[in-house]
Protein 1
Amino acid sequence: MLTKILLSEDQLPKQWYNIIPDMPGQMAPVIHPVTMQPVTPDDLLPLFPMGLIEQEVSQERWIDIPEEVREIYKLWRPSPMFRAHKLEKALGTPAKIYYKYEGVSPAGSHKPNTAVPQAYYNKIAGTKRIASETGAGQWGSSIAMACQLFGLKCTVYMVKVSYGQKPYRKSMMQLWGAEVFPSPSNRTSAGRAILAKDPDNQGSLGIAISEAVEDAATHEDTRYSLGSVLNHVCMHQTIIGLEAKEQLKIAGDYPDVVIGCHGGGSNFAGIAFPFVSDKANGKEVRLLAVEPASCPTLTKGIYAFDYGDTAKMAPISRMYTLGHDFMPPGIHAGGLRYHGASPLVSQLVHEGIVETRAVPQIACFEAAVLFARTESIIPAPESSHAIRGAIDEALLAKEEGKERVILFNLSGHGHVDMAAYDAYLNNELQDYEYPEDAIKESLSHLPKVG
Amino acid sequence: MLTKILLSEDQLPKQWYNIIPDMPGQMAPVIHPVTMQPVTPDDLLPLFPMGLIEQEVSQERWIDIPEEVREIYKLWRPSPMFRAHKLEKALGTPAKIYYKYEGVSPAGSHKPNTAVPQAYYNKIAGTKRIASETGAGQWGSSIAMACQLFGLKCTVYMVKVSYGQKPYRKSMMQLWGAEVFPSPSNRTSAGRAILAKDPDNQGSLGIAISEAVEDAATHEDTRYSLGSVLNHVCMHQTIIGLEAKEQLKIAGDYPDVVIGCHGGGSNFAGIAFPFVSDKANGKEVRLLAVEPASCPTLTKGIYAFDYGDTAKMAPISRMYTLGHDFMPPGIHAGGLRYHGASPLVSQLVHEGIVETRAVPQIACFEAAVLFARTESIIPAPESSHAIRGAIDEALLAKEEGKERVILFNLSGHGHVDMAAYDAYLNNELQDYEYPEDAIKESLSHLPKVG
């Protein structure tokens, strides 16, 4: 019985897939937050090394993965794909459920797929330090690990609510040599301004991004790094989907639906983008992004120009957004608490190529517990959104009596998130109301562009 | 550059290696704690299913791995082997350091290698519930996971000091459906007797074993399961060393020294036993067991008959022991806090085939942090003892200017042990004095056998 599908190291992709030349419709420009004009590559140099800026705007469909990066990828890649036989049996579904497992990386999630090349391109550009932000800490721990590998210093602004909820991820960052500050902090004017208004502010990704961007922009030897949203980040993550396609070929299957959880978009992009051109070429494949009901960017936000951060220091992109000053409730899937979304994913949603669904927290933990009790792997709370999506698709297949092939991205393990499982098992978790008024309010602050 | 050495699923061993027929010298009998006569297989039936009792005493060198067990092994096996190029470089050593990585299992350690077959043999024998104990929780989480897979109930007595230190491992057990009690508990007469004398008793593996054994012995549908020490447990773990030998062949190397950390002995046995017969056949290979200086069973204990547990309910074996009522200090490597040792490993030590070394806690964390900052993987505190041993061997090779091949077992990841790393990084850890008086006292209570 084929349960695990492995690729050899020789089959580790040599190139990332850049979806930009295959995007439907016209891509909107990115707008400078001060001049309100389209940003140029030069505008971005205080924040990013040229190697990444080039990737951000490249029209090349395939971008070579540097050999130094591939060598590090080999620590955990190609990652395994599994057929979830036991979960299928528990659901009594005729569907075949496959999942790609990214929890095998040393940080326990998919985030090192982009942390490593980002650290690499910074290293060769002469960067000495990277400033970044993190929610639940999957990204922060990954960029800390990557900086350690390339001898870069690393400063992480960690959303305060997660700093308290996920102390182990903070410790992982420190173990990998990073300095970590709860955000909002008093180290930046962005942080100080927020604390002045609200000393108990629990933070958001938008605020933490402001702090990290300010830190990088005001220090000559420092660059900024983002763990999701941007084009080059989504591109680095396509290694997931590229491997998954090869693995499904070995299994002799092709997915009816490809599912990823959605926060900033890179993990969803990673599994889904390599299937977009198949879809354009007439293959029937659905692409489904699953987000938390408490931070429903794709399902309740609007498609508009907005700042990437709360303090309006980051570039303005056209994307689905809940407004840059929206403060999402403190759910345990801290990695999904972002007001905006990848412009690439947003455009694909807008064009009707990507489907979206919002699911409440408790239903996700219910799915994660069923998964852990059948497939043995304990999922990260973020990944549990993809599992919820996959289970619902499998139950639908059962209802309709149809054999379907479902592929989802199990983006990380939950060993560092056990406090969240404790809360679920002890019936202490709550579902947050969809914060309609707060979203309406924050959406009234969008920038005027063009 | 060869960094990761993989085996295909076809290369997953089909048999475990049973060292009993290859043991040097005469094996001592196991003694019944009540009759003080050699135990018979029938004596063990209240505790173990016949399938495991047969393995415990088998004279067959190779034992088939059931297909149901191999199917589950494939979730994470064959496990990867890595060459620690970056660690070697940091040490400036001419030695080649290889490590076998067992942290890829769903529980994050090597323990599922035996938990799965133990649950399997119990299942086919009609057992409804398994009672067991755990120190740091690597074993408890693994037996919980395995019971869940085979539909068995699971009760775990967790050493109280670890119950407090490692709350996430307790949560993992509960997530996998087990009930978990801090030990000593008031659920057993063994536990109640200890609490009556000392209500603040922080527990030990010896006490927790007493509780689990009593639970199993007093419930018809329940059997007992041990995560280390016993012959069949060591045998299940030989899958590690069997794979490692094949992987080193691919690398074109043979080890000068094979290193494992040592608590009860199964993880060391797993990596080392498959090399014992090579050694008997004239191959020059050293086998090194590394234990904590605060619980120095192999280096400061005596080779004598002793009870496996504190309440004298478990069988009496000839082994290295610190005395069955020795209470080890509360180091973070909770899995290594056991007064006794595997009789098989003990005999190999006694015969001069296995070398031993005791290392203090802080030196182990120092080694673990260097490892995490070079090789990226965060080790479990238990595994850090093997790393300390490997680093010391590599430094010796440097001093002597000799190229040596070092193999060690990285038995688990430390994502659930970050509080221990926090304590180390904040200089809050202490090294415990070798507790000479306590050991002398407990060694005065050994049973009189024969």
Note: The longest helix of chain B spans residues 231-251.
Protein 2
Amino acid sequence: MTITQPDLSVFEAVESEVRSYCRSWPAIFDRAQGSYLYDEDGRTYLDFFAGAGSLNYGHNNPVLKRALIDYLERDGITHALDMSTTAKRAFLETFRDVVLRPRDMDHKVMFPGPTGTNAVESALKLARKVKGRESIVSFTNAFHGMSLGSLAVTGNAFKRAGAGIPLVHGTPMPFDDYLDGRTPDFIWFERLLEDSGSGLNQPAAVIVETVQGEGGINVARAEWLRALADLCRRHDMLLIVDDIQMGCGRTGPFFSFEEAGIVPDIITVSKSIGGYGLPLALTLFRPALDIWEPGEHNGTFRGNNPAFVTAAAALNTYWTDGQMEKQTLARGERIERTLRDIVTEHAHAGATFRGRGLVWGLEFQDPARATAVCRRAFELGLLLETSGPQSEVVKFLPPLTITPEELDEGLRIVTRAVRDTD
Amino acid sequence: MTITQPDLSVFEAVESEVRSYCRSWPAIFDRAQGSYLYDEDGRTYLDFFAGAGSLNYGHNNPVLKRALIDYLERDGITHALDMSTTAKRAFLETFRDVVLRPRDMDHKVMFPGPTGTNAVESALKLARKVKGRESIVSFTNAFHGMSLGSLAVTGNAFKRAGAGIPLVHGTPMPFDDYLDGRTPDFIWFERLLEDSGSGLNQPAAVIVETVQGEGGINVARAEWLRALADLCRRHDMLLIVDDIQMGCGRTGPFFSFEEAGIVPDIITVSKSIGGYGLPLALTLFRPALDIWEPGEHNGTFRGNNPAFVTAAAALNTYWTDGQMEKQTLARGERIERTLRDIVTEHAHAGATFRGRGLVWGLEFQDPARATAVCRRAFELGLLLETSGPQSEVVKFLPPLTITPEELDEGLRIVTRAVRDTD
Amino acid sequence: MTITQPDLSVFEAVESEVRSYCRSWPAIFDRAQGSYLYDEDGRTYLDFFAGAGSLNYGHNNPVLKRALIDYLERDGITHALDMSTTAKRAFLETFRDVVLRPRDMDHKVMFPGPTGTNAVESALKLARKVKGRESIVSFTNAFHGMSLGSLAVTGNAFKRAGAGIPLVHGTPMPFDDYLDGRTPDFIWFERLLEDSGSGLNQPAAVIVETVQGEGGINVARAEWLRALADLCRRHDMLLIVDDIQMGCGRTGPFFSFEEAGIVPDIITVSKSIGGYGLPLALTLFRPALDIWEPGEHNGTFRGNNPAFVTAAAALNTYWTDGQMEKQTLARGERIERTLRDIVTEHAHAGATFRGRGLVWGLEFQDPARATAVCRRAFELGLLLETSGPQSEVVKFLPPLTITPEELDEGLRIVTRAVRDTD
Amino acid sequence: MTITQPDLSVFEAVESEVRSYCRSWPAIFDRAQGSYLYDEDGRTYLDFFAGAGSLNYGHNNPVLKRALIDYLERDGITHALDMSTTAKRAFLETFRDVVLRPRDMDHKVMFPGPTGTNAVESALKLARKVKGRESIVSFTNAFHGMSLGSLAVTGNAFKRAGAGIPLVHGTPMPFDDYLDGRTPDFIWFERLLEDSGSGLNQPAAVIVETVQGEGGINVARAEWLRALADLCRRHDMLLIVDDIQMGCGRTGPFFSFEEAGIVPDIITVSKSIGGYGLPLALTLFRPALDIWEPGEHNGTFRGNNPAFVTAAAALNTYWTDGQMEKQTLARGERIERTLRDIVTEHAHAGATFRGRGLVWGLEFQDPARATAVCRRAFELGLLLETSGPQSEVVKFLPPLTITPEELDEGLRIVTRAVRDTD
């Protein structure tokens, strides 16, 4: 296939050098439907990226689209800060009935501003207020956002350096299986907590991703998460699960921590919660923690009502029964099989893989290989991104709504891209 | 008029105590058009609030609505991070041609995430990176956002306390006319900068609003802004204008700093830039400052393509000639006349007013009066909020597209609300 | 007079580049008595420096020397941490009877470690503990020490930069007469405190020197100090007077703040408190503030018993009546007269002077002149140092015990050095 | 033996509640000689405490005493900041010839102020300046001082809380044998350094004690120290050994790190360096690190000349041959034998011991036992203090000059005190 280089001059001339995805994928995208994007030159791209987890229901999902356009057509409130609206009420009721109650959760819902980092900032503020302590424990290779509060609990040195100030009040601990695979979990963290001479500032909370998406598709075992929840309880720390990328069904169940049988004190949700790729974020917390004063945290776009509409539609469409979870696990097994084959075929290249639900990672001994695979996949019409501190992991994040045929098509491209880069 | 108390039980049961506007305006809003909102009980509310400055073109502006629905109907890309899209290109071209070039500005455009605080965080990061210093100077009663970086340069003690950590690396300086009206401007700030023994950490940048919206409608004089720009130049500090609330025509010209004839090094824009109340934010900076590495700052919803569509439509509709600016100034004079009358009538209550373009503030000696006026206005069908550190200022922020008749209707309600609360 | 360059090679080879006084005064000092030092080549130096205020009673004062040698001879305890000793008891009793009681002060005495910066660190810790706040207000051109806590409230940019971390939790305010001489005192500070939107982190305490020694011999007026004390009381901030350099009689009375009629909540004392130039420091505070837990602050050399002995001897010798204060003021007038003459004679050079008691400063329009005067004075056998952010002030700090003849001798040298550098 | 309760009323009335040792040892000490203290009631106390390591050569050592009194008698300079003096030259020459050269060290000598915390503050400043980074790694149960810079790298939670501000820019790592005894050394630290996604702020330096005195007599193995030095070299971090308590022969050789065969980049020395219990401290560093500007760090009492005199005398008396080291190791073995016996006898109480040279610790399963043993020892005329985060370790720190008979006497008391508290 011949690729005509698109004319990117406007972006180069007017947009900041900070732009990044457009560099990996030199195309000018125009339309999208389901698992496919289309550029303005008519090329088609299968999507194994899904808006970095924001498009779990695919692009411009027709059910959500209908609900959204109807709402706009009838002049439903668009922007409402935290005024009460019918759209917000419908979302709250749906979220309560479809998500919280069936899971025996009575968490309060906060709209902290429509991005993940808003949710993390509010979660950290609340934890610090509740506990009266400044320090937060995060994990190696965590990613929680780019505003200063979130960045301080993010691991990536390059992103941290961008802060321009020393990032403090956070302490990294080893994520599951970070050390040598033999060192007992939490041996270090627990010792620090127990020893009043350890020098650890007593943490207000621990913030964790169950599967680290940006950090390299590092999957925490259920027993590790349970032990972490137990540690938090024994040492008076709040447990915050950042479910921004792994929630909304990405790993199978609606919340990624359900498999472990834990219930976090605070949960951050964003990305696919709006359903249609519209900005929306939630911070959920146990009622006893709801000690906010009115307006103590806010944000202009926290009441993005069109997103409430698509969010409610998505919940009603996909989460009133267990079908979505089952389907995700089934699709995931299909990926797993392919990755197993690839790893077997490329044992000489030190290939390994890991994942859960519909999030998977493929790593080679040579860190540059991941980028090469993604570049080749793009040429072959598949969007795939890398993750990990050295971009060393090929990350699989297709829409949850992908069909078996689409998935197979994508996996064939991956298999070929791996071979082509050998 | 009899008000039936709406059923707010869902919000009270499920939503966090942090909610605030819904407490002042106990109604459940459903639809909105132009300058009016409608609640589900059929009541009509004239809007002198405009989504805290996010709805300069009114609710569900029909031109923008058409463009938005067309885009959605044809499955235009919704969510794209910073991939290149046709919608983004159209926005960039429009912004360059309609906004930047006519003002002789060659600022680069960054999409830092779709909220004001994302824009401020990125502006502060960039300033720190460029100058290699941590400290930022802000002004008394500034408001720049609620994530930790932005909050550190925000004045409000209640909001600052919510951080849960000491907010450092920021130093407040007196805003225009903050002291006794006789003290020369910048006498303190400049002395600190000149004196190597002053104890001021040398700032990377100064961040300022030309009119402080949340801080109490404090209007900086053009000569003060020019002197500030001059101070920045002489002392090697970047000048950041936070035009999130006052930009997009609120004070008359597109950027609020145009009247002063200054060109800031960095500009943050959000709220009405999307045009339709959809989340969008920009950070603009001189090309020489564009030293970002790819991805050094990012955010999942930084490519909110539906907002690009409405943003471009708004610019093309309202900003290709000088009509909007003229109209805003004319409408503003109408408000000014009414406020002058109110102040004269209520001289005994120590009433004062100030403002510019279509942002005005009315203050009484008794700080509680502002809340009383807004409450009464609400009963009379007008949305008005307070601002200032003690909520002591009634804030006028109607859509720029308000008709003279609507404006007069609102001003009559205000006049009555002031009388009723005497 | 021919100066043989001394052999400084050992210092240059072995000692760090951080050394400073030895560069201004290239001599190898061997002995000292009263107001004179003697180098190993037999040269004599009159001392207008007095160990930067640590030798108010002159070098090797015979009364204190006797007491010290007697104590050493009889094997009195030398090092005792905070164990109870007879020497410490004698000091405490003397300090209580000679210093505290006659001034109606019931301050508790803390031994925070034997240096000024230990005292300041403990004062700041205590203030923060008592008030539960992090922020401390200091003043432009303040100097409080070189450990991180003290440095954060010190003004000098060069010294601050040495910290290697951003110094935070301190905010500088204008010292007396810092601005244009017309701006009302505290107009800015008080406004910040009153305005909950000012962005000032509410301070735990204010730390101030009554006369800034390192900062350039800046003399606070008594009424300014009283207004500051009043401000602290009205705004719930502790008042810390750092009397390390100006206490022990330097300005006349034992404490430098006595003239203003104020009683600080916390006082730091060091330098001349030991009397003989031996390391000792005290932190004094109102009994109600004594909420320390045992050992919450400590230091290995906090019980420097030989210094207790000389300290008690100095108090008993010089402070049981008002003679010392009278004499200091009389000697000070002598300096003042000379400085007035110099300033008159050198009006063309923009000479000015200021001071109180036996601390005076002489400044010229050309900042380099102060260094030139001190260098010439050294050649003429007089030790004089500069102070101020640009070393622009010649600082007069003779022993309080200097005789009128010695003082005249020194002032004659100063007069000549000024002329010689014209 | 009947103890008359001493009259401590002056201390209680005048001195701050912060005092601590005087509470454990309710006596008023008056004189001291060699290994004995005498209170004013004539009681004798054998000293197994040695001024917390400041009196390695015993109390009022006659050789040093003679040198000191001679110096005072002849009016040698007492206080000299960093002016060049004959006493300082003699010390520098002696230190170079007796300490540095024989060990092939060419470290520069800095006088940072006369206390240990001054030395640590200057070491951290220098490391940060050299590397341009803020972060310092310290170890669990480290103790480095009480001023804010030193406290931030100190482990004890109680002491840290006294800061009144969050202590940041420090990260604790596990000291030797901190975990389970099976986990490989540095597995965690090295992984953090290697992984750019770990979230560790890249450290400027590592600060370590070879034996943690305050932390509970935790002895680092030589191979652990060597591995640490290697880690520092490989990861571009400076190695700072805080030898304030363990240097000057406490563990045998002059520097405690000699046994491990490492040469730190920066070394802090204080406590016994003055020899006579007089305040003195040194910061030593490789010549290439000596990038200080003149006066960039300073302190009023950094030139404590009487301490230079006793320091030089101590070096000349005790360190010109290997006798002191041999004697210390021999005396240490005597302690070790006794502790082995005690531990055997009290195996039922879970007694353990550890140490090196003349610093030893005895621990029981019940943390309160250590305090009980020390209290009983005091009644029996022996000064012994506890250490460790819970004061759970009896700490043996006799003067290095203790005679075998005195040592045996003390060990008999210890044996009895342990029995008496069973």
Note: Chain A touches chain C through two residues (CB under 8 Å).
Protein 3
Amino acid sequence: MKSRRDFIKTTAAAGAGFTLLPSGTLFDKDKESKLRLGFIGVGLRGQNHLELALRRNDVEVVAMCDIQQVMMDSAMELVNKSGKTKPQLIMDGPLGYKRLLENKDIDAVIIATPWEWHTAMCLDAMNAKKYVGCEVITGMTIEECWELVHTSERTGMPLMMLENVCYRRDVMAVLSMVRQNIFGELIHLQGGYQHDLLEVKFNNGTQPYGGGVEFGEKGFSEARWRTQHSVNRNGDLYPTHGIGPLAMMTNINRGNRFTQLVSYATKSRGLHNYIVKKGGENHPNAKVNFKLGDIVTTMIHTASEETILLQHDTNLPRPYSIGFRVQGTNGIWMDVNKSIYIDGQSKEAHRWEEAQAWFDRYDHPLWKKYGSDAAGAGHGGMDWFVLNAFIESAKRKIAPPQDVYDAVTWSAITPLSESSIQMGGASVEFPDFTKGQWMYRKNNFAIGDDY
Amino acid sequence: MKSRRDFIKTTAAAGAGFTLLPSGTLFDKDKESKLRLGFIGVGLRGQNHLELALRRNDVEVVAMCDIQQVMMDSAMELVNKSGKTKPQLIMDGPLGYKRLLENKDIDAVIIATPWEWHTAMCLDAMNAKKYVGCEVITGMTIEECWELVHTSERTGMPLMMLENVCYRRDVMAVLSMVRQNIFGELIHLQGGYQHDLLEVKFNNGTQPYGGGVEFGEKGFSEARWRTQHSVNRNGDLYPTHGIGPLAMMTNINRGNRFTQLVSYATKSRGLHNYIVKKGGENHPNAKVNFKLGDIVTTMIHTASEETILLQHDTNLPRPYSIGFRVQGTNGIWMDVNKSIYIDGQSKEAHRWEEAQAWFDRYDHPLWKKYGSDAAGAGHGGMDWFVLNAFIESAKRKIAPPQDVYDAVTWSAITPLSESSIQMGGASVEFPDFTKGQWMYRKNNFAIGDDY
């Protein structure tokens, strides 16, 4: 086996530079047809993936671990409903996942745990020679990001961050339009996470959404851990849903890269106000100081001189919106008004058109082929596609379409935005996790209708 | 007459801190009823104001100057059509305006000339003891901004920048909603100037819009001068339409102020592409290097810890949009999808509502009273209101509702954004043109139905 650097050089020259791994080195050939999966974390998000995995004939769920009985029970209900064989169940505290990784019958793992556990679990999984699919946010510090890259390179094991919005039907149609040059040369893009999470960050300890203003040990599901990040951190805490699709459109890590970033944060009002409104000013949580500004705006500059704007807005009452905008020399798509304008093609000069007709016309081959399989899967079907991409890549023993460089590049926005804000709005340089290979790698994300 | 500082202290204490001028010191009392106006620049924009001024019985157009016969002819046509007395006409080259300022019968002047002439003309007019209304962009450098402030303070003569978007009907309804706390405490705002100016920046030298790719000496109207700024400068060249209304909503210079700013610019493609597309690659202008990035994004931080986002986007084919967003702890307005969401008041949780019903309900008293007078005036009626505010303030000998501090604070965004971009995306401090008085001044913009 060649060294990684040799391999990248060879494959880049051959025009297939996205592949990290020499094929055929991952698993035994005779096990190719069925992927043996382990689940680290079967909370509500893990259960989404589990349910989709159980639907498939090419996946065997070999083991599951969690730290909460209630989650394990719900997960087992899904297994029972599916009629599949009962997996190995591991409940052995926060480090129980290490026992799961010792299971030699597991080819690949899905990690769906609190953010602060992702890096440790990914590292351990790669070191245990598992193909890794991890929920979003892989690396909470730049050092963690580098460690993930180095470990993936050293072990030869891929890490795919399960960023699902790259597979949203309208987003993929726009990706097709970008690739067919409908927008011309890209100039400016926007995205973000504008989602009122008040009933996610707080609940009554028994239901996942709302009903109370508890979090941490007294909370349930995400409120148990996610809210604490709003207490301690000020930055764009959740950048990947916005940046993933935009990074693929602008060929980040594949001919382009992020060069620098700057973030500004507003005051913090929403979380405190909500506690007082729903729990009264004497509720103990009314004394908590939340560090997270209600809205964090981030500008990114790229090597190709595009700008990308990200908005993180999770503490205020508002309608949901990723807030996509894709603008080039020929035209523009905006998400919030569901509209597109293409110079010379739109019916009236300078007038928005309904975007849907464009989406229908440029529907991505993957959605044409698998749209009915994806129907009923989470988040409008995109959960089906992201899991499918992971499973198909793992079965074929190739690098996933969203690889470790993407995982850490997208996740690194959070610590970089925290630094920028802490330094009073200084622009900070973006690390090049590919170590120069971004100049040679090709964009093979969703180029066909395979996965 | 008290010194300015004493005066401001007194009036601030009396809750009328917006007034720069002791009343009754500007003009002779017996001329109060009719304002005697001079026009410096009667190009297309000057003619808009002229036409509205000629409609009024409380205005006498005393003199007009310009450097182009064609513009003077058009202006005289408007005068003739109105049946009003022929004003003094001055055509004496670029400095002819100084002769106009010598006319002692002129109380106030309207300046509508290229940006680079605004500061010199405003300074000369204030020194000549004229009440000054100047078209947008007053001060192209920070030094010019300061000189305008110092000269206004020294001479006691007000400068109103004629920023019309502050008077847009929907914008004023939102201002009313802000003041009635419908949005709660403001958190984040957006605006800008997203307007395809390709046919403004280039024309055939005889028509104002399009028909060719000429600019500078071979261009007509704005193409004669405005385009050159895109050759030489990279920044948010036109911030006032977006920031004016947002500044009034956030009480800038009246309890709040801009503290810092950062801008990122994209590559420059649109202007060159347009020249090649319409004029061919052998047209001499195809060799021009335009410094202005196609999209310039600026983030501003305020003393009250709001963030304001501005977008300057004038080189690409796109639908027009100022791109307003006003978001507080209770809800949000967005311009591009014409929608509002107010927590607990909107019909469905987390669902946008058509904004129009809200605009109708919170229609500003000024629009209720003068909507029919404004009908037919430029830019949907808002031109009527901004001129009316200038004329009524001048007649009453009081500080205008948008004063010199506003004029330079809004205009200063351009040179600050140029600096920020030149320094590679550094945040730059925002000057406090009020010298601390922002802490005490009150927001009296459009508080009643007078002007």
Note: The radius of gyration of chain A is 22 Å.
